């Protein structure tokens, strides 16, 4: 039985969601959708336009005329805004430290959730974010909530940065992660929270391969039901 399922992966910053989601999607030949990249792309364009990030009216008008697309890439998926590649730009510090503000705007969430549901409609999807299991794909057959200690997550980000030649002190990364988690968990509209029917996996001392295998087992289990 190789029924194409919807796989929802949520969790706090740097828990490993996008890394494992991409690998799981490849393993099952599913489509992978990084919803965080959509919030980041919206934030990048708003910053470039010089909008205040609480100016929801301007950001919504902008978003209505903004195309966000993905293309498969070697190490990570490539992200395009209005045809321009922004894969690296959306990971920069000023986007990272402002994205939670934009993601708390209810109109922005409504529009992006709509787009995400359209992407998922084809079936056979792995989608990662904060509200996938609770809001975007509430009927997903496989729901995973990935967590890891904040020290481990800061170290993972530190290593990612080092590979890119970026140096932000570990303590600062830890503080930024904690602040973003707090904002994401306390916003009014679809905050980060584990869906009741999600399986929580603590990845603190797991390898990427271990996590991919654990999620794959969940998929295979549900395929045979
Ligand atoms: O990869 P990282 O954990 O840094 O974050 P991300 O998945 O790229 O998401 C960036 C930000 O977008 C999050 O901190 C949330 O504020 C927002 N987001 C969201 O609100 N809902 C989602 N489904 C995905 C991301
Ligand atoms: O998407 P999210 O912000 O949750 O995490 P990510 O962007 O996938 O980053 C996680 C980082 O931790 C990557 O550099 C992974 O190589 C590393 N990592 C992991 O994802 N899972 C583990 N079990 C161990 C390390």
UniProtKB/TrEMBL annotation:
It holds the Pfam family Cytidylate_kin. One of its GO terms (cellular component) is cytosol. The lineage of its organism: Bacteria, Bacillati, Bacillota, Bacilli, Lactobacillales. GO terms for biological process: nucleobase-containing small molecule interconversion; pyrimidine nucleotide metabolic process. Residues 7-219 form the Cytidylate kinase domain. Keywords: ATP-binding, Cytoplasm, Kinase, Nucleotide-binding, Transferase. The keyword Transferase applies. This is Cytidylate kinase. InterPro entries: Cytidylate_kin, Cytidylate_kinase_dom, P-loop_NTPase. Its EC number is 2.7.4.25. The keyword rRNA-binding does not apply. It comes from Apilactobacillus bombintestini.
């Amino acid at each position: 039985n190789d029924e194409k399922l919807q796989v929802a992966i949520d969790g706090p910053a740097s828990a490993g969601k996008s890394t494992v989601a991409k690998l799981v999607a490849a393993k099952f030949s599913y489509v992978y959708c990084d919803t965080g990249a959509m919030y980041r792309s919206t934030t990048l364009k708003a910053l470039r336009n010089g909008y205040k990030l609480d100016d929801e009216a301007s950001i919504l008008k902008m978003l209505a005329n903004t195309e966000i697309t993905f293309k498969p890439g070697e190490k990570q998926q490539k992200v395009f805004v209005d045809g321009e590649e922004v894969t690296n730009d959306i990971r920069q510090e000023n986007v990272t430290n402002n994205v939670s503000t934009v993601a708390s705007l209810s109109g922005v969430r409504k529009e992006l959730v709509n787009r995400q549901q359209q992407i998922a409609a084809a079936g056979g999807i792995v989608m990662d974010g904060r509200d996938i299991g609770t809001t975007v794909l509430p009927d997903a057959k496989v729901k995973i909530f990935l967590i890891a200690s904040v020290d481990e997550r800061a170290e993972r980000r530190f290593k990612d940065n080092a590979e890119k030649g970026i140096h932000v002190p570990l303590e600062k990364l830890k503080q930024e992660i904690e602040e973003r988690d707090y904002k994401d968990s306390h916003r009014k509209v679809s905050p980060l929270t584990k869906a009741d029917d999600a399986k929580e996996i603590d990845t603190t001392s797991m390898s990427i391969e271990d996590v991919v295998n654990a999620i794959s087992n969940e998929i295979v289990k549900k395929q045979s039901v």
